[in-house]
Amino acid sequence: MSSPTTPLVWLITGSSSGFGTSLTFIALNAGHKVIATSRNPSKTPDLVKQVEDLGGIWLALDVTDTPENLQKVVAEGTKKFGRIDILANVAGIGILGALEDFSPKEAQLTMDVNFFGPMKLTQAVLPQMRARRSGTIVNFSSGAGINPSPTMGMYAATKFALEGFSQGLANDVAPFNIRVLIVQPGAFTTNMMNAIMLTEKEMTKDYHDTPMGPFLDFFKGDQQFKAANNVEKGCQAVFEVVTGTGRGKGKEEHLRLLLSSDVAQRALDQNAKIKAGYDAFRDVWENTTHDGGVRKAFNEL
């Protein structure tokens, strides 16, 4: 997607903090139109006014809401600007703890925010994108979507689900000239890290003497989380890759955007583990075909 002659219209979730806020203002300051959203716009009146002063609108949107209510928000934004060119699913939640200690309610909430929310919004915007034969879906994943750190198993499960959905979606919508981009941030200084929640159940004692113990203790303090990576720089990169400008020019065919050096290294390490398994089990995967001939493979259909 090259630099547009007419402004692109963005629908961005989680606009009240972190990546959502930064991406909202980068797009607006570049002359694009933005439908900014958050659960409670009344909690950020200054941000709402700034967005509106720059020509955007701010709508209340809870990604855990029903598909019907999410469709109403999409319809309202579409009525204002005529279309939605880019959906950026940024909103997320993190609950940390041993998987054994998660309640069904905590697991469901994490999945509702991080996976089902983006899925429902994607389903809501796809009909208009498919009709126009253009559009971009941007799903914010995480380094945990590559290989989770201790205590992040449930969070990673939602991001793995989002990545699988995104990869399958990319195949589904490619014939309609709709692009899917998975953004994989590493450690960035965002409010989400300071808003991390822990399981209601105290960590089972046996886990305290594993790497989970000190990792979880880090988030129990009152210190403000700081990381090496800058949100503004990260979102500027996302903007360029989505619009096919600057460092994103000519890279439209790529599905995943590694957004920081720490997550890039994590990807390399994970790929090395996959390659090691490939080599270790060669004597298995080379010897599972039917005797007496090869039948038509599923991937050849």
TrEMBL record:
It comes from the Eukaryota. Gene3D superfamilies: NAD(P)-binding Rossmann-like Domain (3.40.50.720). The keyword Nucleotide-binding does not apply. SUPFAM superfamilies: NAD(P)-binding Rossmann-fold domains. PROSITE patterns: ADH_SHORT. Keywords: NADP. The keyword NADP applies. Pfam families: adh_short. PANTHER family: OXIDOREDUCTASE, PUTATIVE (AFU_ORTHOLOGUE AFUA_1G13950)-RELATED, SHORT CHAIN DEHYDROGENASE. This is Related to short chain oxidoreductase/dehydrogenase. It comes from Phialocephala subalpina.
